[in-house]
């Protein structure tokens, strides 16, 4: 029984790899330099949340076991958020409160992005992204173009491709502005 604690769980390992790929996509310098996401802790969370929402949108449209993969991924996402808070020095007593706030923020953004993405509404998406991802009153049309292009690109990927080579997002440098 004690040895089972040291065995590698292949499902957990796959989710860690997928998380690392999403994190890498969310850290592309052009997202910050060209598309305006602030290069701050909050901005990096916004970018990570945005890429996670895009991945989860794709997983929702795929046949089983994609739903299970999505749930496993979101569990990994929040475990990594918890670990990040602890690395930033948030004490045990404050982690729960901050995690609740992060979860509320994440799911609020997912809801806010889904409607305009479902409708293909560039203007509404630009407005939501301006407020959330850029923290400004002005819309973010260049970021919206990147998000729409990424959503279209993900729509052509199978679960095997997503888990194998990782999700492929649009290139932020090549996004029309």
From TrEMBL:
Annotated Ubiquinol-cytochrome c chaperone domain residues: 34-169
One Pfam family this sequence matches: Ubiq_cyt_C_chap
InterPro entries found in the cross-reference section: Ubiq_cyt_c_chap (IPR021150), Ubiqinol_cyt_c_chaperone_CPB3 (IPR007129), Ubq_cyt-c_CBP3-rel (IPR014569)
Leader sequence residues: none
Homology family: Belongs to the UPF0174 family. Belongs to the CBP3 family.
The name this protein goes by in its record: Ubiquinol-cytochrome C chaperone
């Amino acid at each position: 029984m004690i040895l089972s604690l040291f065995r590698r769980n292949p499902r957990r390992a796959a989710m860690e790899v997928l998380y690392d790929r999403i994190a890498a996509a969310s850290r592309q310098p052009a997202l910050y330099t060209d598309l305006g996401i602030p290069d701050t802790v909050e901005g990096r969370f916004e970018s990570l949340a945005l890429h996670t929402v895009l991945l989860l949108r794709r997983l929702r449209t795929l046949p089983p076991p994609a739903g299970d993969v999505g749930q496993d991924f979101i569990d990994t996402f929040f475990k990594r958020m918890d670990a990040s808070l602890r690395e930033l020095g948030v004490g045990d007593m404050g982690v729960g409160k901050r995690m609740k706030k992060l979860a509320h923020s994440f799911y609020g953004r997912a809801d806010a992005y889904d409607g305009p993405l479902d409708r293909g509404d560039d203007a509404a998406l630009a407005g939501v992204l301006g407020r959330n991802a850029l923290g400004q009153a002005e819309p973010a049309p260049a970021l919206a173009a990147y998000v729409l292009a990424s959503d279209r690109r993900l729509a052509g990927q199978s679960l095997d491709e997503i888990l194998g080579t990782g999700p492929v997002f649009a290139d932020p440098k090549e996004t029309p502005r």
